[in-house]
Specification:
216 residues; mainly alpha
Amino acid sequence: MTSSQEAKKQGLPPTAWAVLGLLSFPGERTGYELKKWADSSLRFFYWSPAISQIYAELRRLEELGYAASARSGPEEARAKRRYAITDAGRAALADWAADTAEAGPPVLKHGLLLRVWLGHLAEPERLRAMVGEHVERTREELAAVREAMEQAGGVPEWAFPALALRWSERQHLAELELAEALLGDLAGLAQAPAEGRRGDADGAGRQGDGDAPTPG
């Protein structure tokens, strides 16, 4: 590998490693097939890259020699380019996967909780409805996770993806429990006296001499 390629390797984003990871399983796949697989596996515990991201990373991986592609022959009515991992790509991916220092802590960005945090600006009924909608979406996602688990079950090559999906099933179950508890909290807050939930112009609800509920 040239020094230029080595520098590019060091700068590979997680998206590139995820796409290379999809290629590390047996078989050759088109970019569209990789997108479908990401939608039925990666998105449940990480995220699913856009199809444009997948093709951009495939080009980058080919430049590095980590992936190779070939266009289908005349036997197919519509020509397709299929991608496969190379030996160099598999070795690089194994090194990256073994580097736990690069994994970093989990990052939670919960859009619904951000709105709950701003609940003093929202209509209580609308806020509770938003949480209810979140519960329904989470149930739908849980059903999709379980469908993916069924597809992965019994396939020896997918044993580890199946473990990740099982973790995702537990995570969605926990999210449902948290959301149901949040609905109970919001109901309890609605029953509290309005004066106890609302700061006034004189600074009611402030902590000490500060202007926010922070320690110290």
